């Protein structure tokens, strides 16, 4: 296969990008809701309707980030502004979660700080990792093959998904807890998800182009 | 006349590039065929190998595809494309350097004469003439790139400077020296 054939096939995947982005946003939102709320023992007592607004806005942020991923006609400078706004919005929202008696009681005993923090960190990492796998599977199958910046964007979206799940799971009123556990998981998952994307990219390129002997040398050109 | 034709070719390619960004399949095909036509001779002149030129062209096209969202619409498509092509060539030489020291091979005139003679594309041959091609062979790779981009692709000195990652004055100095070197060669080999 020639590089041009690969490009034509890659662009064909862009034709139905809107539907894929919508489906992917819904899948990720449902998965994060299920994981975030599913692990809550205090779900029934603590959950209130106004707890929904921060995660709902985060779902919109995830969808918008995916839309920025797929719109190749938009220049990167435009995307980076949009992504920065989305990220700031998501991080800001993670700080203004509604407090409930249960969430406040969570940290009344200082001995519970680290166990609760590690619990959220582990859950966030788990959710982010699940999100990164879903993202990778769908992105490489149904959306244009991601370039380096899009791979980074996918890694960022994975962390954002974990943050969203934690927003539903833990209405931690402590800033230190939010920084360490909620934002920390996003920072930890970023390199993992990024290398996952890079590895998949290398596999796709090899699988697609190496059938042609003359294109084997492309691997030396740092694609 | 040729410059006008080349300019209109790039204007058409630019229009197709805009459509390619909007996922227009027909425009994408025309665009990449046009880019292939522009890039292959560039690599052919520089590497003197059909296989390497084809590989480099394919790699450059892939790089263009993966970098499509980085293109600044206010800048020239031609400059952007040749900047990517130039980087491909540098990467190629760096990669090949450890294997067969290609850069040194090109720089060393004695060894360079043992290499197969450059048989340029018919379009290049018609435009430059065989003597000029031989004269170009005497130049260092970077100088050949500068002369090629200026004479064949019609890029301005500032565009070439950004393509080869040098200052405009350095490009002018190199171009001036290259012309002088070619003039001497043509005088000695009429």
Strand-helix topology:
The complex is a heterodimer of chains A (about 220) and B (about 190).
Chain A (H helix, E strand, L loop, with lengths): L2 H10 L4 H22 L4 H4 L6 H18 L5 H20 L5 H5 L7 H30 L5 H22 L5 H35 L14
Helix pairs in contact in A: 2-4, 2-7, 2-8, 4-5, 4-8, 5-8, 7-8, 7-9, 8-9
Chain B lengths: L1 H20 L3 H23 L2 H17 L10 H24 L1 H6 L1 H4 L9 H7 L1 H8 L3 H11 L5 H7 L4 H21 L2
Helix pairs in contact in B: 1-2, 2-3, 2-4, 3-4, 4-10, 8-11, 9-11, 10-11
Describe the structure.
The complex is a heterodimer of chains A (223) and B (190). Chain A is mostly helical and 223 residues long. Chain A has one domain. In chain A, 74% of the residues lie in helices and 0% in strands. The longest helix of chain A has 35 residues. Chain A is elongated and about 65 Å long. Chain B has 190 residues and is mainly alpha-helical. Chain B has a single domain, classed as Butyryl-CoA Dehydrogenase, subunit A, domain 3. Chain B contains eleven helices and no strands. The two termini of chain B are 27 Å apart. Chains A and B meet through helix 1 and helix 5 of A and helix 1, helix 2, helix 3 and helix 4 of B.
């Amino acid at each position: 296969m020639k590089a041009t054939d690969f490009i034509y096939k890659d662009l064909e995947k862009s034709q139905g990008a809107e539907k894929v982005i919508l489906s992917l946003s819904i899948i990720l939102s449902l998965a994060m809701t299920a994981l975030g709320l599913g692990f809550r023992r205090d779900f029934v007592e603590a959950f209130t309707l106004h707890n929904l607004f921060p995660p709902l806005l985060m779902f919109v942020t995830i969808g918008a980030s995916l839309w920025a991923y797929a719109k190749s006609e938009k220049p990167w400078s435009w995307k980076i502004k949009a992504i920065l706004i989305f990220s700031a919005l998501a991080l800001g929202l993670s700080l203004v979660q509604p407090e409930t008696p249960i969430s406040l009681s969570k940290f009344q005993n200082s001995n519970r700080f680290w166990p609760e923090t590690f619990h959220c960190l582990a859950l966030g990492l788990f959710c982010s990792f699940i999100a990164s796998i879903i993202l990778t599977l769908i992105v490489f199958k149904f959306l244009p093959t991601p370039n380096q910046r899009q791979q980074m964007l996918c890694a960022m979206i994975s962390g954002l998904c974990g943050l969203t799940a934690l927003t539903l799971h833990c209405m931690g009123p402590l800033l230190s807890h939010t920084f360490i556990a909620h934002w920390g998981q996003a920072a930890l998952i970023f390199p993992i998800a990024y290398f996952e994307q890079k590895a998949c990219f290398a596999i796709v390129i090899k699988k697609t182009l190496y059938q042609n002997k003359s294109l084997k040398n492309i691997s030396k050109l740092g694609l | 006349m040729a410059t006008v034709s080349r300019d209109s070719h790039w204007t058409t390619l630019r229009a197709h590039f805009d459509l390619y960004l909007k996922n227009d399949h027909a425009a994408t095909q025309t665009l990449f065929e046009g880019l292939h036509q522009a890039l292959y001779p560039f690599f052919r002149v520089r590497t003197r190998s059909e296989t390497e030129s084809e590989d480099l062209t394919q790699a450059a096209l892939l790089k263009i595809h993966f970098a499509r969202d980085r293109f600044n619409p206010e800048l020239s498509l031609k400059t952007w494309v040749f900047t990517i092509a130039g980087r491909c060539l540098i990467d190629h030489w760096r990669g090949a350097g450890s294997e067969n020291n290609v850069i040194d091979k090109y720089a060393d005139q004695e060894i360079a004469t043992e290499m197969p003679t450059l048989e340029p594309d018919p379009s290049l041959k018609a435009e430059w003439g065989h003597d000029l091609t031989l004269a170009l062979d005497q130049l260092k790779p970077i100088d050949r790139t500068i002369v090629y981009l200026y004479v064949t692709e019609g890029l301005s000195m500032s565009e070439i400077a950004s393509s080869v990652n040098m200052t405009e004055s350095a490009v002018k100095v190199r171009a001036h020296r290259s012309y002088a070197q070619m003039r001497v060669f043509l005088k000695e080999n009429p």
